[in-house]
Amino acid sequence: MSDREIKILAIESSCDETAAAVVVNGRDVRSNAISSQIALHTLYGGVVPEIASRKHIEKINQVITQALAEADASLDEIDAIGVTYGPGLVGALLVGVAEAKAISFAKQIPLVGVHHIEGHISANYIENRELEPPFLCLVVSGGHTHLVKVLDYGVYEVLGKTRDDAAGEAFDKVARAIGLGYPGGPKIEKAAAEGDPHAVEFPRSKVAGSPYDFSFSGLKSAVLNYLNGCRMKGIPIVQADVAASFQKAVTDVLIGNAMRAVEECGADKFALAGGVASNGALREGFRRACEERGVAFYRPSPILCTDNAAMIGTAAYYDYIAGKRAGLDLNAVPNLKLGESR
Ligand code: KG4
Ligand code: ZN
């Protein structure tokens, strides 16, 4: 690795945050600008893809200007542009990809395409300078639930994933069902803090023959059935108890499968990542489970758990120093698989 500073301008627009960041040598975040669309989508009870892409177009130049200004950097100093090109909403991804290609072409700056999940995993490097692969990572977001063996920078083995709903998606759907609205995760966490996690025994689903895979659709249906049952019998629904019991069921399954992998793989480092990783009960549960097993536990600060561009800059840096480059034919790939080469 050279002694020279490598400055990456990173862009993220895969879902409902328009974000840009300047990251130096992979772990030194000089700026992390985020324009969130949550308030806008709240009006519709969830992310509306068409509205998301239009808003990205409106905000992208603004957040890039802000990220450069906060980092006190100009485009002339940037060594590479890192951009999320999948997975995500195609119209949303396209805005970031087109912007990154335009800057790359106009300023003749190398382009690096980043996998969104690789970004989430890499968020752990930012505040933990000592963290190096190999380690195990559980990525829990609105679109993904992946248990990943991080073998090296940019080298991943997916041990397990969800067969149906992602963990964050389950939070969002259950929040809607119990009348908490969007975005579900933080609202369930807040309501759960006042509730009894043992009030309702929801199922801890397992996937037969695949101990590292997850399934949350059964849990979601169990919550809906419970709510219907209460309504039919005239039993009052205690929102906080349902939220706490649901959150405990999700947390138990995530911790159970992940710790099984930790033990079977003999891992000594474990990291959480993704939007759901900002959940306090989940973080505490994992902290305790790792401590009991003598495993070092890592998790990003909440601002680095949800979608942001700093994590994309970190992932892009390791790809950049490994010589990976994207051409101007880089396209958005909405269903990009982790570990797929570009
Ligand atoms: O990683 P992220 O920002 O976007 C995706 O890549 O999907 O994750 C968003 C997801 C949403 O489903 C949201 O409800 C969930 O993360 N989330 C949470 C919490 N904060 C966000 N879930 C549980 N507890 C939270 N505190
Ligand atoms: Zn994400």
What percent of the residues sit in helical stretches (DSSP H or I)?
40-55%
Largest sheet: 5 strands, mixed
Task: Give the N-terminus to C-terminus distance in angstroms.
Answer: 23 Å
How many strand segments?
Answer: 10
Widest beta sheet: strand line-up: 3-2-1-4-5
Shape: globular
Number of helices: 11
Mean pLDDT: 95
Q: Which residue ranges are poorly predicted, with pLDDT under 50 across at least 5 consecutive positions?
A: none
Q: Encode the helix/strand succession as letters.
A: EEEHHEHEHEEEHHHHEHEHH
- What structural category do the secondary elements indicate? alpha/beta
Strand content: 15-25%
Determine the oligomeric state from the structure: single chain
Work out the radius of gyration: 20 Å
List the ligand species.
5'-O-[(R)-(carboxyoxy)(hydroxy)phosphoryl]adenosine, zinc ion
Primary descriptors:
single chain; 342 residues; alpha/beta; 5-stranded mixed β-sheet; 11 helices; 10 strands; binds 5'-O-[(R)-(carboxyoxy)(hydroxy)phosphoryl]adenosine; binds zinc ion
